[in-house]
Amino acid sequence: MGIVAVAVVRQAVMAFHPVAGLLLLILPTYAVVKKITPPLFVLVSIGALLIGVGGVALATIAAGRPLLPPELVLSILPAVLLGTAVFLAGGALLGRKK
Fold it and tell me: What is the 3-state secondary structure (H, E, C) of the chain?
């Protein structure tokens, strides 16, 4: 039963993870363009883009067909994660309506 649960959860993650990433990338930009939120809220989209690029780089390594040398990906990953956190938090904090 445990193996079946793991398989189901993995499939669910594979189905919803890309959708969530695209929403984080598109919706903040849309909200800024439509003037629903302040311009700095677009920083959330930049953070989502960073984590998306990092995730694709890691996924290609796991799949055995890396886009970049694995050493390079692993060496820049901490900076990508820090940049993601800074942009997501900055966009959430600085992009609030007054």
Answer: CHHHHHHHHHHHHHHHHHHHHHHHHHHHHHHHHCCCCCHHHHHHHHHHHHHHHHHHHHHHHHCCCCCCCHHHHHHHHHHHHHHHHHHHHHHHHHCCCC
pLDDT value of residue 93: 95
Q: What is the pLDDT at residue 76? A: 95
With a CB cutoff of 8 Å and minimum separation 6, the contacts of 42 are 28, 29, 32, 91, 95
- Give per-residue pLDDT as tens, 2-49: 788 877 887 777 778 888 999 999 999 999 999 999 999 999 999 999
Q: What tokens appear for 47 in the block?
A: 């953070």
Percent of the chain with pLDDT over 90: 69
CA distance 45 to 30: 10
